[in-house]
Design goal:
The structure is a homodimer of 127-residue chains.
Chain A: H1 7-18, H2 20-28, H3 33-41, H4 47-53, H5 59-71, E1 75-80, E2 87-92, H6 94-114
Antiparallel strand pairs in A: 1-2
Chain A binds a DNA duplex (30 and 30 nucleotides) through residues 1-3, 6-9, 11, 30-31, 46-48, 57-64, 83-88.
Chain lengths: 127, 127
DNA sequence: ACAATAACTGACAAAATTGTTAGTAACAAA
DNA sequence: TTTGTTACTAACAATTTTGTCAGTTATTGT
């Protein structure tokens, strides 16, 4: 739980107020979040399916990440009727769906340079 | 410093291998990074200018964030000749410049929903 | 001689995130 | 009766990130 008196918390809040960029980055930060959103968008909308896709995640951690994504309204949970034990579907909201192509862009940006695109700097000699 | 034997480290690495999305998110994660990249893109290319723009950041922390951005080749440092004490310019690389509009998109995504865009869910009743 | 400047670093403490362990419910199948 | 299933939670430990404090360099201005 966050300590509301800490400098860290205060700095975070003032950055959130300064620009939405900072809240947006914080919503997608977190060890497994990007990958979870991607897998759900691909139809892996159940707890056990996500577990299969991410064999190294523990149930506790998966549960926590899902809860955080839910708290930012990126996804919602829905009980599946007539299932025993009760199944839960994780469904991306419109906000979550809008995020998917942005994460793709970010992914391609990273891939481009990871795959060898030259890093260059434009230096303006006259100041 | 990261412990190379920790589960946390191992999980991070396997996500990085799984998809570049995860490395890309990790490059922009960090309390001040998005805002620093933005300010540099706006011409605030000196240490003291960034400090002015981010009055709550300490020099130690600013230095650390800049070093991390540098390690991901998002920016480079250049000494400014004939300055005393030696001035340093922080310059976005092509990789850093490419990142700016992506962060803008992320920012607009967040703003849209923060400003009241309705959260909706499309639920397909027939399975 | 002393303060001011730009841009740091090392050592450490505080806080936050991530991971681990053990356990829950309610019903079904063996 | 024991095991298996889905989808969790609480309490805690390990690790990582963030912040703090004190000090450094080399030069110029007073």
């Amino acid at each position: 739980m966050r300590k509301k008196e800490s400098t860290d918390y205060a700095n975070e809040q003032s950055l959130f107020q300064l620009c939405e960029r900072n809240s947006a980055i914080s919503m997608i930060s977190g060890r497994w979040k990007g990958q979870i959103v991607y897998y759900i968008s691909q139809g892996n909308d159940r707890f056990h399916l996500l577990k299969q896709k991410l064999p190294d995640i523990s149930e506790t951690v998966l549960s926590r990440q899902l809860k955080e994504l839910e708290s930012h309204a990126i996804l919602v949970k829905r009980e599946i009727p007539n299932t025993v034990p009760t199944g839960i579907r994780y469904i991306l909201t419109n906000k979550g769906i809008d995020l998917v192509p942005i994460l793709d862009t970010l992914c391609n940006w990273g891939k481009l340079y990871a795959d060898g695109k030259k890093i260059t700097v434009y230096e303006d000699k006259q100041v």
